[in-house]
Amino acid sequence: MTEDKEKSGSEKSDSEDQGSDEEQQVEIRENHEEDTGTFQELGVVDVLCEACAELKWKHPSKIQKEAIPVALQGKDIIGLAETGSGKTGAFALPILQALLENPQRYFALILTPTRELAFQISEQFEALGASIGVKCAVIVGGMDMVAQALILSKKPHIIIATPGRLVDHLENTKGFNLKALKYLVMDEADRILNMDFEVEVDKILRVIPRERRTYLFSATMTKKVQKLQRASLQDPVKVEVSTKYQTVEKLQQYYIFIPVKFKDVYLVHILNELAGNSFIVFVSTCAGALRVALLLRALGVGAVPLHGQMSQQKRLAALNKFKSKARSVLICTDVASRGLDIPHVDVVVNLDIPLHSKDYIHRVGRTARAGRAGKAITFVSQYDVELYQRIEQLIGKQLPLYKTDENEVMVLQERVAEAQRLTKIEMKELEDKKGSRGKKRGADSDDDTEEAVGVRRRIKGKNKNKHGGKRKR
User: Fold this and answer.
1) Residue 223's pLDDT band (boundaries 50, 70, 90)?
2) Element (H, E) at 367
3) What is d(CA 270, CA 134) in angstroms, rounded to the nearest whole number?
4) Which of 73, 91, 221, 315 gives a 20 to 30 Å CA spacing to 272?
């Protein structure tokens, strides 16, 4: 953020800011009791309490208990909470309640780092606001800009957007502005900034009203997030649910130590052994996700890949197949490690160990959500020992070994080797097909996430063609 931006965002003098910040810190230390209480006790109006009941939200989660009353008092919030803790409800309910009291179009803007998360937040807003007729618009890259401009012209109440595509519309869509905006939410703020969206966020902050409520939610408090806090929040209350990195208690975590060449065989063994469960298998690359999905299909396992080189429609289709239980295994890159809430994930398998230890927490957070139990199994090869030790250090515990019988596993080796051979041929065919369609097709398959968009755009300069469909964000 630019320095003058910081000044303008925090005109309440720095000394005053620090003083109030100290007083207003609300820290909830980890207590192991079940969540109790009701949404009504937090001050949520009856119509929204009924919506919560319909979504089977019996009791508010810890972050909701702390954030909702503060938000209803009209204060800015910095929310630090672990993944799967109910953050969306913590900002959606106060916004919808304020909207009920003061109906207005373009009422709230929610910024998220990835497209999948944007669609998911929109689903929650629509479910909570169904009885009060809330209209939401999802504005993300990979979709047609003209169609999005039409949606925006209908003036929805809530806009959920990735920063890059929103800036496109603010600059290029006639008649669209956010001068009347009342609420700004930055969800997964640490990741928005890690993905090089600082310039875009800065542009957005310049064109929205200074008089607004701002909620900043993040799993981690990095220096960049602190800078963003100074630039965009006024006298915020800090709500912290977890003071150290940790994983949910009901999550059983294991590791399995195997030679790298037998990874596939052990994966198939675990899928067979735990058959009947639903799995998310994390891999490190887009090509890896496709390869494992093809391999499992060759062995008769219903698997779908999800990665950043798929078009937005295919990504949503893959997610829907998995959510509707039409497929029991989702193979994905870290595009799905944060924010995706799929209630019925029983087992997370880290086939490739994450390079960043914090990503481990987000990955395994896809299971054991909202009080349910879950399993996570991490494959550790001879090359991964150091990375694995970093993970154990971060979560502050040593994981038990997942017990397998080697003879039982190796029975599968022949079948898996044959499937690997067929997969290799299929991958080659797909590669050739892609090549023959020329570079035009290849341009569609960019990055793993929205990642590095800012850098790429700045390198290419402003001469990029402004027609929406082609521009990825």
Assistant:
1) confident
2) none
3) 44
4) 315
Q: Are residues 258 and 306 in the same domain?
A: yes
176 and 72 housed in the same domain: yes
Please report the pLDDT score of residue 180 as a whole number: 93
Nearest partner of 355 among 377, 332, 333, judged by Cα: 333
Alpha carbons 192 and 339: distance in angstroms, whole number = 12
- Residues with Cβ within 8 Å of 396's Cβ and at least 6 positions away in sequence, in order, are 244, 245, 246
Q: What is the rounded distance in angstroms from the CA atom of residue 35 to the CA atom of residue 108? A: 29
Token output for 325: 């239980």
Assess whether 227 and 358 both reside in one domain: no
Let me know whether 334 and 383 are in one domain: yes
In the beta sheet, which residues pair with residue 103?
A: none
Which single residue is written with the structure tokens 């979709």?
143
> Whole-prediction pTM value?
0.62
Strand, helix or coil at 401?
Answer: strand
What is the torsion angle, in degrees rounded to the nearest 10, for the CA atoms of residue 288, residue 290, residue 295 and residue 297? 150
Q: How many residues does the chain have?
A: 473
Tens-place pLDDT, residues 293-334: 999 999 999 899 988 788 878 888 888 888 888 889 999 988
Q: How much is the mean pLDDT over the chain?
A: 81
Write the pLDDT tens digit of every residue in 387-408. 999 999 888 889 999 999 999 9
Decide if pLDDT at 466 tops 50.
no
Of the chain, the end-to-end C-alpha distance in Å amounts to 20
Number of domains in the chain: 2
Q: Which of 289-296's residues contact partners 24+ apart within 8 Å by CB, and which partners?
A: 289/331, 289/332, 289/333, 290/427, 290/430, 291/423, 291/427, 292/264, 292/267, 292/331, 292/351, 293/331, 294/423, 294/426, 294/427, 295/264, 295/416, 295/419, 295/420, 295/423, 296/268, 296/271, 296/329, 296/331
Residue with the bigger pLDDT between 75 and 30: it is 75
